[in-house]
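User: Just a sanity check before I run the rest of the batch. Below are the structure tokens for the first item. I only need the designed sequence back.
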């Protein structure tokens, strides 16, 4: 694997991810924004069929935010909020939760899906899943992963299968992008599907 230089800023920042889900008449729209992903999807439906994916919830919009400070000593505090209200606040050392007490000594990885589904439901379960998934990319903040000159991803075979972009048929042709990483330590700035901007503008007009 090609070497990446350590980022000298690591230890003073935080990884953030925001997931915004909006259900409307005839369409469901979602966006994900974090240091590495500005992505969105819009799915049209006529109710029960796709054309179509149908939301299982009646709420018009749900916003899930997570924050995971850098962990130079392998300890951090992971937080998740749903619509601005904190639903998870975990002290994590290595792979184990230390607090809150009911979750102490549970693994952030092994068996996570089972214990999370036993303890949470609805949006709190979604937030727990998103928070746990955020533990993977946050470790990239320690390195300058967007500083190497453009080169093919398959020059680093270890990256194969590590995310959707690093699978075939794209893996053999995709290139590194220089300067693509965003830093949301000071707060989230969203990239949204164009229809979401229009809908928000109409609501506040």
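Assistant: Here's the designed sequence for the first item:
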């Amino acid at each position: 694997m090609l070497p990446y230089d350590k980022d000298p800023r690591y230890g003073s920042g935080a990884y953030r991810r925001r997931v915004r889900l909006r259900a409307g008449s005839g369409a469901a729209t979602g966006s994900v924004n974090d240091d590495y992903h500005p992505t969105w999807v819009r799915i049209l439906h006529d109710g029960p069929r796709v054309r179509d994916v149908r939301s299982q919830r009646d709420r018009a919009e749900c916003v899930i935010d997570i924050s995971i400070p850098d962990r130079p000593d392998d300890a951090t505090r992971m937080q998740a909020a749903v619509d601005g209200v904190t639903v998870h606040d975990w002290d994590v050392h290595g792979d184990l939760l230390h607090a809150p007490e009911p979750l102490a000594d549970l693994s952030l990885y092994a068996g996570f899906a089972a214990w999370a589904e036993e303890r949470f439901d609805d949006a709190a379960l979604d937030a727990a899943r998103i928070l746990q998934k955020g533990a993977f990319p946050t470790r990239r903040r320690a390195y300058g992963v967007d500083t190497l000159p453009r080169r093919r991803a398959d020059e680093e075979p270890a990256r194969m299968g590590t995310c959707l972009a690093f699978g075939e048929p794209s893996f053999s042709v995709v290139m590194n992008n220089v300067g693509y990483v965003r830093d949301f330590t000071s707060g989230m700035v969203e990239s949204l599907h164009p229809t979401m901007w229009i809908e928000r503008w109409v609501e506040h007009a």
